[in-house]
User: Which sequence fits this backbone?
């Protein structure tokens, strides 16, 4: 259901970047921890609620609460301009990006047909916070308010450094996954998981995981190429 | 350049459009012939004497029944012994089952339940022979089909739905024919559809026009004024009174509305009076001593008041039966399908169920007339028992065996009736298979024959036993009889099942040919598009590259996704949402582009916002609420009244601005001024309708004049525009502007009619489509910028044209239409007309249905091409290039429409055995096909109008 590719933020064109580009191992580790965080969140949710379908908003809430610190803390390590921008400032940017991204995601979802109403409010809210975590938050932590970087990742889809790949691929994966996840919703199978936002969330999670796998395949590739170029 | 001109001559474009139109027509014709076949209607009629061919007992063989019933004249009976003398049928159109059944049968009590108290009271009264049945109709659940099904006992097929406008007389054998033929006098009052179906059958008839759905009372009042006097008359045997109020109230206000409950209360009073009247005359020797009262619905309706499809709400209706002769004892039946519940007053109410196809044959059996030849129903045991409880049992022996022997005698008779019933059905099936090209499959026929002969063999054994033991009064043959009824039941049930599953004989060969022709037309379309693309490329000698852009790929993807979505019934139901989902996706990609390029952000955002708004209106439309009525709910009524008028003012202002240009031709100016005048009239019309203003109309001016004037203005505008093509051959330098003006004039002359037909939402939707068109036009330039230089026309226009067609689909749904016959806004056909006149109202209905989704978008397509400024390569060349692009856009638009129809056709072919085929797929098919032909014709007209073939 969701496909919002673009975020708006006041542009400040400081991109004299000397970012600590993560090594393939670091990238692998980051994705592994993110993935494990997601898996453990799902596992806990399964333990607590036994049924991953019955109460989507609480499960989504649990997942994003567990995942949020992991993502923000990890990606803040790779912030651009680490000299000008302290680690905690990056964390703060990530925290700020969470609700902002949620608004963008929710608007996108509603434009595409997500149900609106009081009884859907908490579902949509938690879902969009989770989506924001997959898409906007890493970028917010890393790029802050650098408009050109955002534009490059989300509008042009032209990642350059390995950190770009680590942000760009999972984010696009989550969005595309969520978009495909909406497809079963109109079918008349009468399954509980066809309700908004369950299948969309699973689609997004699946897309996110695929994006992560793709990204840690690409990152070593990229760094190898650079190596070759450097030599 | 000579080479190009030569190719142009080789490729006369108009012939391509005509060729495609013809191919579509031929393909669709073939497919429709194969798909929407009618059941072959056999010209045979049942006769009294036929029964001697049956292996069953004659109704009164001297050896068996006559001694017991010396008072019955054998001459009177035909196939079965008449059980009742007179029959009163009161049909309440669109009677939902829950109107009749006590609310305790349902999960929760709704406001419209328990209104027909009198029926419930009678059904649970001790010792009365009254009962409520849940009657299950077969789709299509339109009144005409149901009346046909009720009287013929067959399964009318879908194609008849199309005849609903001018109902043809039933030529098949039917109940009414049999009644008349066997000397019963039938009188009828109410819905005039009966008279169209049975033009010469009634002794007396009091028809009232049924088509004006806004009129809740004419038919009902007419019915009541004639019903009560008739009940005192002796000059009829069967009386039919057909009330329409509930149906009309549902269509206009929905089930959960005050007019609906008022109607039901009114019926309750009427029925109370009818029952009281009948009972007062039911004494021995009275007029209604042996009368049966049937109060029934022909079909149900949804909460929104729609019917036509096959959902439970639509097919479930009720029959209330009451015999006026008190039965001396009630018969306990084994085949009791009833379920019982306590009603609100704590009385036990039992409800059985009956199939609607059983109605004709059961009533025939009760009245003792031959069963209609084509009936495939069975004599319903409960309904039959209820009335046969009124048999004359006085002569039977007193004592302990009385009940037993009553039961036995009844069973014997019933088994005999079933025997005749089975014989008649078997005869029909045999003759049908012999005379129709594709009958039932041999296996099925063999299976049926085996079941039949087994049942009949059984029967002769039983009969021998019976005859042997008939003098031993205490011998009970009930188990034998029961076995016998079971055998007949299973035979009749398998016939009905077979008929249901295979009735429509799809002609696969025809369907295949049709589909093949459609595929060929797609190929032609595609070739034409490629050819034109190359041709356009020639104009950019240096940078003619026909690379495949992202826009082209994505557009193809969107079109294919949408087309594939038709393969599932769920996506067809949610078609509007699917279209808005895809449109929003393209809109978001546009937004992404605009962020990438850092320009036209406003247009992209507006477009996404527009789609979001459309999305909500589509959901409203699906729940059958007009946008304006929701406005009415959420804000004070003066705003709801004012907003459409404001939108009209904005539209008029835009038109005024457009003619402020001096360059525009004079005729076009007049045309547009005519539209502005029409808008004023529309505003006046709404003001006169408004309850708020409560303007008294000047005397002598009927309100209908205003819409009629608007239609006349529209016609005049269109004809003057058509003339324009022949008259003015001015060589204006700014021909580009000229095309735009012609387009504005064309759109504006359609708009006034379309707007008044769509009601208050009209101007808002018109504004939305203008905004949408403007955004698409502006955003088109992305593709242009993407590549340096000019891409081929194909990739340049693919995504705007796709968006254009998606928006058109969205507009269809957000104006409250959907692809079903109940999605037609019949009320729109009555704007400006009081009576029903077929041709103008059919035209109005199609303008209302296709106005925003087909007519306006197709005539508006030049908007996409118009601002295009090709390079200055000389005026002539630019001009030719412009018109080639325009043709390309039209070709692409037609192609997109054709692809989705191809998939609809594929889908109905695959799903032709689906449960919903008549409820969902067939209406979708009909709508799409109508839309495709209309699209082709409109494109052709547009090609002629914009004159781009003459522009060489």
Assistant:
């Amino acid at each position: 259901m969701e496909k919002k590719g673009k975020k708006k933020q006041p542009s400040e064109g400081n991109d004299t970047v000397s970012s600590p580009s993560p090594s393939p191992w670091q990238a692998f580790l980051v994705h592994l921890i993110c993935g494990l965080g997601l898996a453990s969140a799902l596992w806990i949710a399964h333990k607590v609620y036994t049924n991953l379908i019955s109460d989507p908003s609480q499960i989504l809430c649990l997942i994003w609460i567990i995942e949020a610190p992991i993502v923000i803390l990890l990606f803040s390590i790779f912030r651009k301009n680490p000299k000008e921008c302290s680690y905690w400032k990056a964390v703060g940017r990530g925290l700020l990006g969470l609700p902002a991204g949620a608004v963008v995601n929710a608007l996108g979802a509603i434009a595409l047909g997500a149900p609106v109403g009081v009884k859907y409010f908490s579902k949509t809210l938690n879902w969009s916070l989770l989506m924001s975590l997959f898409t906007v938050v890493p970028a917010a932590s890393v790029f802050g308010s650098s408009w050109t970087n955002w534009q490059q990742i989300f509008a042009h889809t032209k990642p350059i450094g390995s950190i770009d790949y680590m942000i760009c691929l999972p984010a696009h994966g989550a969005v595309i996954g969520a978009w495909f996840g909406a497809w079963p919703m109109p079918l008349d199978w009468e399954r509980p998981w066809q309700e908004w936002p369950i299948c969309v969330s699973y689609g997004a999670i699946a897309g996110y995981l695929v994006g992560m796998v793709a990204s840690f395949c690409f990152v070593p590739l990229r760094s190898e190429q650079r190596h070759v170029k450097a030599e | 350049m000579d080479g190009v001109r030569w190719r142009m001559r080789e490729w006369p474009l108009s012939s391509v459009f005509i060729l495609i139109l013809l191919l579509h027509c031929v393909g669709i014709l073939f497919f429709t012939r194969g798909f929407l076949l009618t059941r072959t209607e056999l010209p045979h009629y049942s006769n009294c004497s036929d029964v001697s061919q049956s292996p069953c007992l004659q109704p009164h063989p001297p050896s068996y029944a006559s001694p017991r019933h010396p008072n019955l004249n054998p001459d009177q009976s035909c196939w079965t012994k008449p059980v009742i003398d007179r029959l009163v049928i009161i049909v309440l159109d669109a009677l939902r089952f829950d109107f009749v059944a006590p609310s305790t049968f349902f999960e929760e009590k709704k406001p419209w339940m328990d209104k027909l108290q009198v029926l419930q009271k009678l059904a649970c009264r001790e010792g009365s022979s009254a009962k409520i049945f849940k009657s299950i109709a077969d789709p299509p659940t339109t009144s005409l089909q149901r009346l046909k099904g009720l009287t013929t006992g067959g399964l009318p097929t879908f194609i008849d739905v199309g005849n609903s406008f001018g109902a043809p007389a039933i030529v098949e054998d039917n109940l009414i024919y049999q009644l008349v033929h066997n000397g019963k006098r039938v009188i009828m009052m109410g819905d005039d559809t009966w008279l169209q179906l049975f033009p010469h059958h009634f002794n007396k008839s009091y028809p009232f026009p049924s088509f004006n759905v806004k009129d809740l009372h004419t038919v009902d009042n007419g019915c009541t004024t004639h019903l009560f006097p008739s009940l005192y008359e002796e000059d009829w045997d069967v009386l039919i009174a057909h009330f329409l109020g509930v149906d009309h109230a549902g269509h206009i206000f929905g089930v959960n509305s005050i007019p609906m409950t008022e109607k039901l209360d009114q019926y309750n009073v009427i029925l109370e009076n009818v029952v009281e009247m009948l009972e007062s005359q039911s004494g021995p020797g009275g007029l209604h001593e042996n009368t049966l009262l049937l109060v029934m619905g022909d079909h149900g309706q949804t909460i929104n008041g729609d019917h036509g499809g096959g959902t439970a709400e639509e097919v479930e209706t009720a029959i209330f039966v009451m015999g006026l002769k008190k039965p001396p004892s009630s018969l306990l039946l084994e085949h009791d399908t009833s379920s019982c519940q306590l009603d609100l007053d704590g009385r036990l109410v039992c409800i059985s169920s009956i199939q609607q196809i059983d109605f004709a044959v059961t009533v025939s059996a009760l009245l003792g007339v031959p069963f209609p030849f084509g009936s495939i129903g069975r004599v319903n045991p409960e309904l039959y028992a209820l009335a046969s409880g009124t048999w004359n049992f006085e002569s039977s022996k007193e004592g302990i065996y009385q009940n037993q022997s009553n039961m036995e005698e009844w069973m014997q008779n019933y088994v005999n009736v079933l025997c005749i019933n089975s014989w008649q059905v078997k005869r029909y099936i045999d003759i049908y298979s012999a005379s129709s090209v594709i009958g039932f499959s041999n296996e099925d026929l063999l299976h049926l024959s085996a079941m039949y002969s087994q049942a009949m063999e059984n029967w002769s054994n039983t009969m021998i036993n019976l005859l042997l033991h008939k003098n031993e009064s205490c011998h009970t043959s009930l188990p034998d009889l029961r076995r016998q009824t079971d055998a007949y039941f299973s035979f009749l049930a398998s016939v009905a099942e077979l008929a249901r599953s295979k009735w429509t004989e799809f002609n696969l060969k025809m369907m295949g040919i049709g589909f093949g022709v459609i595929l060929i037309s797609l190929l032609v379309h595609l070739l034409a598009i490629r050819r034109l693309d190359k041709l356009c490329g020639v104009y950019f000698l240096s940078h003619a590259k026909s690379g495949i852009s992202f826009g082209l790929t994505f557009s193809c993807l969107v079109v294919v996704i949408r087309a594939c979505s038709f393969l599932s019934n769920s996506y067809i139901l949610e078609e509007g949402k699917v279209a808005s989902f895809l449109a929003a996706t393209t809109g978001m990609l546009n937004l992404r582009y605009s962020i990438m390029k850092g320009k036209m952000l406003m247009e992209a955002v507006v477009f996404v916002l527009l789609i979001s708004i459309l999305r909500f209106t589509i959901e409203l439309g699906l729940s059958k609420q007009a946008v304006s009525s929701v406005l009415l709910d959420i804000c004070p009524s003066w705003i709801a009244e004012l907003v459409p008028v404001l939108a009209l003012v904005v539209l008029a202002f835009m038109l005024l601005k457009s003619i402020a240009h001096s360059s525009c031709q004079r005729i076009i100016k007049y045309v547009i001024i005519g539209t502005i005048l029409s808008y004023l009239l529309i505003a006046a019309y709404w003001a006169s309708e408004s309850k708020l203003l409560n303007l008294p109309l000047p005397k002598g001016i009927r309100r209908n004049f205003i819409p009629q004037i608007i239609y006349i203005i529209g016609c005049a505008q269109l004809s003057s525009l058509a003339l324009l093509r022949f008259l003015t051959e001015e060589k204006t330098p700014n021909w580009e502007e000229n095309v735009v003006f012609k387009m504005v004039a064309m759109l504006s002359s359609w708009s006034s009619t379309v707007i008044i037909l769509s009601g208050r939402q009209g101007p808002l939707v018109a504004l939305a489509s203008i905004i949408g068109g403007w955004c698409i036009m502006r955003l088109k330039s992305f593709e242009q910028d993407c590549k340096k230089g000019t891409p081929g026309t194909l990739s340049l226009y693919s995504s705007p044209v796709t968006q254009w067609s998606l928006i058109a689909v969205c507009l269809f749904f957000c104006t409250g239409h959907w692809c079903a016959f109940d999605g037609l806004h019949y009320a729109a056909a009555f704007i400006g007309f009081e009576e029903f006149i077929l041709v103008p109202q059919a035209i109005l209905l199609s303008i209302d249905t296709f106005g925003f989704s087909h007519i306006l978008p197709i005539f508006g397509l030049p908007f996409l091409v118009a601002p295009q400024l090709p390079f200055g390569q000389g005026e002539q060349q630019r001009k030719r290039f412009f018109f080639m692009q325009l043709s390309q856009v039209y070709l692409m638009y037609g192609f997109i429409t054709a692809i989705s129809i191809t998939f609809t056709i594929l889908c109905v072919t695959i799903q032709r055995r689906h449960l919903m085929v008549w409820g969902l797929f067939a209406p979708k098919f009909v709508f799409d096909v109508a839309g495709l032909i209309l699209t082709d014709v409109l494109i052709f007209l547009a090609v002629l109008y914009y004159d781009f073939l003459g522009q060489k």
In short: Chain B has a mean pLDDT of 79. DSSP finds 33 helices and nine strands in chain B. Residues 875-910 of chain B form the longest helix (36 residues).
